[in-house]
Design goal:
single chain, mainly beta, six-stranded mixed β-sheet, four-stranded antiparallel β-sheet, 50% strand, globular
Length: 119
């Protein structure tokens, strides 16, 4: 089992920045693929970006390209999402998730952290 805990969400004005963190504990190892998802109010959850153990990233959600950056620190079992130039449409609950590199399904999920961007 892997436990994931997100932090770093909050209220920010448009154009501001936030950095989300996701700390993993339990049966962790650096081979897990980590991902960030988000669920805007009243909408479906969407995949933002993923990163493998070596730091290779997936494609970013088109709407966040050039503004968001994912990174990970395997020694700390932590993945980050740096969010810059935030827009009101980035308002969502952000979730961290983890999966085996051999399984396309994210099996482990954090509880989510709220990000609210005011205009």
């Amino acid at each position: 089992q892997v436990q994931l805990v997100e932090s770093g969400g909050g209220l920010v004005q448009a154009g501001g920045s936030l950095r989300l963190s996701c700390a993993a504990s339990g049966r962790t190892d650096s081979v897990y693929v980590m991902g960030w998802f988000r669920q805007p109010p009243g909408k479906e959850r969407e995949f933002v970006v993923g990163i493998n153990w070596s730091g290779e990233t997936t494609r970013y959600l088109d709407s966040v390209k050039g503004r968001f950056t994912i990174s990970r620190d395997n020694a700390k079992n932590t993945v980050y999402l740096q969010m810059n130039s935030l827009k009101p449409e980035d308002t969502a609950v952000y979730f961290c998730a983890a999966r085996s590199p051999y399984d396309g399904n994210y099996a482990y999920w954090g509880q989510g952290t709220q990000v609210t961007v005011s205009s």
